[in-house]
C-alpha cells in the first residue's frame, strides 16, 4: 500500500515542474541577498508569504499558468516556503497549518494599528513586499526585481523584560494594540491561565533584569538570566502549548504574552532558563508508530514457519 501511494508521485509532480529550473526556486535577487541571516539578526516580514490572498495575487499576476515566472516571483517575495532555501527567518511558520495567533498579531499592523511597533515587537528588522506600503514608521531602503525592501526601526530583539504585566483577554490585547493604547515595551498583556499562575509585581525604580542567550535553535533555547526582582521575560517567538520551560532544572510555567509570544517568570538572582518544544502530538505519534511496528512483528512471529501450510 505504501509503494502504491509513493511510487506514482514523481510522475504526478513531474509534468508541472519539468519546465521549471531548480534555480528559479531559490531566491537570488539583490534585495534578498542583503537580508540578515541567523538567530541574532532579527526576522523578515514577507506579506506575500503571510497573506494567502496576496501570495496568490503576486504569484499569478501575469496569468493563471504555473511556470518559471510564477515560481520566480514567489521566490523573490519569499512567498510560501522559499525563505527556507536561503535560511532567512520570517514571522511566518514553517508549518502549512500556520500560527493563527501570530497571524492575528501581525494583522494589527494591517488594520490601522502601529505597523512598525508591532513588527518591532516580533523582532522584525526588514519588510520584503512586492507592493508599496503606506504604513508609517517603515523606511524604504532598496528595490529590485519588483520587490521593495523596507527597514523597521527599534526591533525588540530575541527577548526583553517589560516593566509590568497584567492579565488580558485576547480581544482586549488586539484592541489595545490596534488603538495604540499600550506600549508593549513597558507592559506585557498576558493571557489568563486556568491554573491562575501569578504574575510578578511591577518592577520598582532602580531595579534591573538582563538575559543572555547561551543557545538558540528553532526548538530549543537556553538563557542565563539575572534580575534584582521577580521579572517576566518575553521571548519574541511564537507561543505554542508544546513549549516546556525549566529554571535551574525545575519545571516552570509557560505563559502567552502580547497575544502570541512566549513568556516565563524568572526569579531574582542568577539563573539558567531552558525552553524546549516538546508537543504531546509528537509523543503520541511516536507511541502509535512503535505500537504499530510491534504489532507487525507480533503478527509476523505468530505465523507458522515457512509460510502458510499446504
Description:
The protein has helices at residues 2-6, 9-17, 30-33, 47-50, 52-59, 68-76, 100-107, 115-121, 170-178, 280-302; strands at residues 43-45, 124-129, 139-144, 147-151, 159-160, 164-167, 187-190, 209-216, 220-227, 231-238, 243-247, 250-252, 255-257, 261-266, 269-277. With 310 residues, it is an alpha+beta fold. The strands form four sheets. The chain has a five-stranded antiparallel sheet with strand order 8-9-15-11-12, with no helix packed on it. It has a four-stranded mixed sheet with strand order 1-2-4-3. A four-stranded antiparallel sheet has the order 5-10-14-13, with no helix packed on it. A hairpin with a 2-residue loop joins strand 11 and strand 12. The longest helix has 23 residues, at 280-302.
Which structural class fits the helix and strand makeup?
Answer: alpha+beta
* Residue runs with pLDDT of under 50 for 5 or more positions: none
- The first-to-last residue Cα distance is 27 Å
Question: Could you tell me the number of beta strands?
Answer: 15
Features of the shown structure:
15 strands, 5-stranded antiparallel β-sheet, 4-stranded mixed β-sheet, 310 residues, alpha+beta
